[in-house]
TrEMBL record:
<dbReference type="Pfam" id="PF00907">
    <property type="entry name" value="T-box"/>
</dbReference>
<dbReference type="GO" id="GO:0005634">
    <property type="term" value="C:nucleus"/>
</dbReference>
<keyword id="KW-0804">Transcription</keyword>
<dbReference type="GO" id="GO:0002302">
    <property type="term" value="P:CD8-positive, alpha-beta T cell differentiation involved in immune response"/>
</dbReference>
<dbReference type="GO" id="GO:0045893">
    <property type="term" value="P:positive regulation of DNA-templated transcription"/>
</dbReference>
<dbReference type="InterPro" id="IPR001699">
    <property type="entry name" value="TF_T-box"/>
</dbReference>
<dbReference type="GO" id="GO:0000978">
    <property type="term" value="F:RNA polymerase II cis-regulatory region sequence-specific DNA binding"/>
</dbReference>
<feature type="compositionally biased region" description="Basic and acidic residues">
    <location>
        <begin position="556"/>
        <end position="570"/>
    </location>
</feature>
<dbReference type="InterPro" id="IPR046360">
    <property type="entry name" value="T-box_DNA-bd"/>
</dbReference>
<feature type="compositionally biased region" description="Low complexity">
    <location>
        <begin position="604"/>
        <end position="615"/>
    </location>
</feature>
<dbReference type="Pfam" id="PF16176">
    <property type="entry name" value="T-box_assoc"/>
</dbReference>
<protein>
    <recommendedName>
        <fullName>T-box domain-containing protein</fullName>
    </recommendedName>
</protein>
<dbReference type="InterPro" id="IPR018186">
    <property type="entry name" value="TF_T-box_CS"/>
</dbReference>
<keyword id="KW-0238">DNA-binding</keyword>
<feature type="region of interest" description="Disordered">
    <location>
        <begin position="541"/>
        <end position="579"/>
    </location>
</feature>
<dbReference type="GO" id="GO:0000981">
    <property type="term" value="F:DNA-binding transcription factor activity, RNA polymerase II-specific"/>
</dbReference>
<dbReference type="InterPro" id="IPR036960">
    <property type="entry name" value="T-box_sf"/>
</dbReference>
Length: 643
DNA sequence: CTTTTCACAGTCGCGCGGATGGGA
DNA sequence: TCCCATCCGCGCGACTGTGAAAAG
């Protein structure tokens, strides 16, 4: 790998390699595992590097094998992690090698929420990437051309009949994918040993703002793409550990097709519509502007990609390495690459592959030119500071102190403000991921847009819900009747994203700046509110009917202030009692959240005759909860404080 | 009919320049 | 009186989702 290929100033062009992808059930691997093979089918510039218009190429005949564990009967040993230090050599790392502090859920139960192990855990570091030290054809960016990552949301149902994709998507959320994760961190974590280096360090990557990603993911994240480029939101932000302090690394993100389908939003759901266009040209990689840098640097603080822009302008790759070219209505999977380089930024060509790739399925999104799912729109408005102008209760939302923020600041500084530091979550025994509440199975917008919902109800076991940050959380499967087949698909597949991280170990990865942002209480409310509090309050103003809301989750008492405990108890018996909130303006016609009027919001003509009907209230609209939040002065919306 | 593009309004942070205040 | 540091207001650009119009 040439130096220029990874330097920020150097344009990173798309490789021109094309691959065929094939999957097959693996018989010789651990039970239930499957393999994907990426076979190069077209080669125009072999052994050309990524530098300056170069390409990432595989040598002739090279192929890479991805392996995903489709089921992990024993929960651990059948979870191979493939690391390729040479394209001709595939080495497998048993999860046993990952250390004893990892806990996997094995699953062979296809439809149960919990059974879907993929839904529970972030993947371990993705391996099987194509980087080699010998031929220089390293960057798997090439994969996006003729191949896709495994489908995550519809692996079994949607891809049925697509033999080449149906079985073995490693990254798919099919059964058996492993997500080592640590509940105390609030982050997904992936890890893998450095290939080719027996004594190498194992890097671990934490998705810092995973709670936010999960919120979007459960509705199927959409990312706007425009000609001039649109920033991602949520953006990618990672914590990395396990690097050599003095080693030098390049860090970059690559976005590849997540499945072979073209998607469309129809009937309130995302459905496949033909095959994806794999031949989309354009830059698919974004090198972190601080690359190269030392391991100590990367590990010192979050690594955010807030300036990464997405575009559908095919010509953007030539002059703007800040933009990644995507195609609308295609599903993509961001991947994080960490490449060890020499001190001067040149990739180590000594022969050992020192590249690690990490994929978090909750980062998947569908590229769109206009938002399709109003849930996603609402989430963007609620969480993206740049969209503050579209929040209806804006005035009341920014009374909280600075450190109550839950979402990143729009500042351009990638380090100081934009990150939702997962490290902070490590301070949270009440980390929100531990509470994935019920969501209504369907929400209807204007009576037609039914948004598939996950029912990833994950209730902490009371005996496990101790105050210690190392407490253990278990996932409780909750069966809900899907209204239709697609819902079931979402139900099962999306459970992946709505799940709790399962694990025992809590990592304390605090970073200096992270500590000041998210006080425990804020996250406590966020956690408790996730799905149950105030996320979609504004929508009530539109009078839209809501699907049934499950009862509020029972949170461990340890995690609720005494006052809240009382309120919880109260709400358990009168869940839908409307409570005026303190932030309500005096001259408002309505009380509580119902009075909030959204600016420039699409308003349904449908009268909200159901506002007082418990049967249709969304969990998120629990006014009692909302009031509770406001009483605490740092409700769910207490993201920023205007200076 | 679906998808894309564009102009728009709104918010925010940054940078510049002027005003102000303190010290030499 | 001069110099320097600090504060404040304003303008600009970046960024967002909206909604209409254009394109396919």
């Amino acid at each position: 790998m040439q130096l220029e290929s990874i330097l920020p100033s150097a344009p990173v062009n798309l490789p021109k390699t094309f691959y065929n992808i094939a999957s097959s059930e693996s018989n010789n691997n651990s039970p239930g595992s499957a393999q994907l093979e990426f076979q190069e089918v077209n080669r125009t510039e072999p052994k050309k590097y990524l530098s300056g218009g170069g390409s990432a190429m595989l040598s002739e005949g090279e192929s890479e094998t991805f392996s995903g564990n489709k089921s992990a009967p024993d929960g651990r040993k059948s979870s191979p992690v493939i690391v390729e230090d040479d394209l001709s050599t595939v080495r497998r790392y048993s999860t046993d090698e990952l250390g004893s502090d990892r806990y996997f859920i094995s699953s062979s139960q296809p439809s149960s929420d919990v059974a879907n192990a993929c839904s529970l855990f972030p993947y371990a570091g993705q391996t099987g990437t194509v980087y080699t030290g010998s031929n220089g054809s390293r960057y798997s960016a090439s994969l996006h051309y003729g191949s896709v990552l495994p489908p995550t949301g519809f692996s079994s149902a949607v891809c049925a009949g697509r033999s080449q994709f149906g079985a073995g998507y490693q990254f798919g959320q099919g059964p058996g994918c492993l997500y080592p994760s640590y509940p105390g961190t609030g982050s997904s974590i992936g890890s893998m040993p450095i290939a080719g280096s027996g004594a190498g360090l194992r890097a671990q990557v934490y998705l810092c703002n995973r709670p936010l990603w999960l919120k979007f993911h459960r509705h199927q994240t959409e990312m706007i793409i425009t000609k001039q480029g649109r920033r991602m939101f949520p953006f990618l932000s990672f914590n990395i550990t396990g690097l050599n302090l003095t080693g030098h690394y390049n860090v970059f993100v690559e976005i590849v097709l997540a499945d072979p389908n073209h998607w469309r939003f129809q009937g309130g759901k995302w459905v496949t519509c033909g095959k994806a266009d794999n031949n989309m040209q354009g830059n698919k990689m974004y090198v972190h502007p601080e690359s190269p840098n030392t391991g100590a640097h990367w590990m010192r603080q979050e690594i955010s990609f807030g300036k990464l822009k997405l575009t559908n302008n095919k010509g953007a790759n030539n002059n703007n390495s800040q933009m990644i070219v995507l195609q609308s209505l295609h599903k993509y999977q961001p991947r994080l690459h960490i490449v060890e380089v020499t001190e001067d930024g040149v990739e180590d060509m000594s022969g050992e592959t020192k590249t690690q790739t990490f994929t978090f399925p909750e980062n998947q999104f569908i590229a769109v030119t206009a938002y399709q799912n109003t849930d996603i729109t609402q989430l963007k408005i609620d969480h993206n500071p740049f969209a503050k102008g579209f929040r209806d209760n804006y005035d009341s939302m920014y009374q909280a102190p600075e450190n109550d923020r839950l979402t990143p600041s729009p500042t351009d500084s990638p380090r100081s403000h934009q990150i939702v530091p997962g490290a902070r979550y490590a301070m949270q025994p009440f980390f929100q991921d531990q509470f994935v509440n019920n969501l209504p199975q369907n929400r209807f917008y204007n009576g037609e847009r039914a948004v598939p919902q996950t029912n990833g109800l994950l209730s902490p076991q009371p005996e496990e819900a101790g105050p210690a940050s190392t407490q253990r959380w278990f996932v409780t499967p909750v069966q809900q009747a899907g209204s239709n087949k697609l819902d079931l698909t979402y139900e099962s597949d999306y459970s992946a994203s709505s799940l709790l991280p399962y694990g025992i170990k809590s990592l304390n990865l605090q970073t200096t700046h992270a500590l000041g942002y998210y006080p425990d209480s804020a996250f406590a409310s966020m956690a408790a509110g996730w799905g149950s509090r105030g996320t979609y309050q504004r929508k009530m103003t539109t009078g839209l009917p809501w699907s049934p809301r499950p009862s509020p989750p029972n949170f461990p008492e340890d995690h609720l202030p005494s006052k809240d405990k009382l309120r919880e108890e109260s709400s358990s018996t009168s869940t839908w009692v409307e409570t005026p909130h303190s932030l309500k303006s005096a001259d408002s016609v309505d009380s509580g959240i119902y009075s909030m009027v959204c600016k420039r919001r699409r308003v349904s003509a449908t009268s909200s005759s159901t506002e007082n009907s418990p049967s249709i209230k969304c969990e998120d609209l629990n006014t009692d909860d909302y009031s509770k939040e406001n009483h605490k002065g740092m409700g769910y919306y207490a993201f920023y404080t205007s200076p």
